[in-house]
Amino acid sequence: MPSVRNWCQAMQRSAEGRATLSNILHDCQESRLPSKTLKEFFGDIALAWNRRRRTQLPETIQRSVQLSKPNDYCCKGPDISGDSVECSRVMSLADLIEKNIDVAKIPFAITGHLTNNQVELLEKFGFSGAATNTMRTARPFAWVTLGNKFSVIYAGTKTANVARKLLGMTHFQKDEHLVEIRYPKGVFRSGGLFAPTFLDGCPSLVYRSTVSSDGWGRAVDLDTLANALPEAVHEEINFTDDFKLRNLGRLKPLARPFDWSALLGTFKYPWKASLYKVLVPYV
């Protein structure tokens, strides 16, 4: 399809685009997405490229395609649900308060940033009827990790920094206060937890599609670029008092800038222009 080829040629001019194309090639080669989903994605890319190529970057076109059909283009990877799965989500305290807490039902007044003592009250006593809305990001899904892997984070004192490093969370650059949200046991007993694919993680300079023995994806360690903590995605679910909070504390500045250029060399299928022919059967 000429339009998809031209979109790929435009994408490969940026590091973010090459990372995305590497992930697309990986997920196609490793059969991590239904062929129908891939055909639909590339068809939508072709239509959007023909309409917007003169006014939008190719990465922006991909984002707009995925935003236009949120239920078609998220959580389509391999199912990894199970009765014994214990999940946790790391998020900023500010986002939690803004999106998932009914502040009128909290037994203390919030003025600006919460104090550490107030966070510890939420950790100790729970949400007490203040939990509201759904767990999601800007798109209708959320990222989680395996809760039983958090021992490596709580082993030290700089827990927020370690969580950011081992979950590849480069979007946290300021002194945000991070928290762990622990999901109720059995919430994914009947399904709904998926290994992430490029449709969830891209366009991005830090996401890397991975096939692992346990079925989970793997975040990128921001220091070593090795595989770090397990990661998965789920469609938005109701946030209730059954969820629990654990305080991670405030972030410090990154010890070193994230080396996104070095990351490109770590992909299983590093992108180069000649590899487009490998994508053709999926388009």
Describe the protein's architecture and organization.
By secondary structure, this protein is α+β, with helices and mostly antiparallel strands. It folds into two domains: 2-74 and 265-282, no CATH class; 87-260, no CATH class. The longest helix has 18 residues, at 35-52. It is globular. The termini are close together. A hairpin with a 6-residue loop joins strand 6 (217-220) and strand 7 (227-235). Helix content is 34%, strand content 16%.
List key phrases describing it:
11 helices; 34% helix; globular; 283 residues; seven-stranded antiparallel β-sheet; 9 strands; 16% strand; two-stranded antiparallel ribbon; alpha+beta
- Span between N and C termini? 7 Å
How much of the sequence is in beta strands?
Answer: 15-25%
Order of helices and strands: HHHHEHHEEHHEEHEEEEHH
- Supply the number of helical segments: 11
Mean pLDDT: 93
Helix residue percentage = 25-40%
The overall number of domains is 2
The biggest beta sheet reads: 7 strands, antiparallel
Report low-confidence residues grouped into runs of 5 or more: none
**Could you say which overall geometry the principal axes of the C-alpha atoms support?**
globular
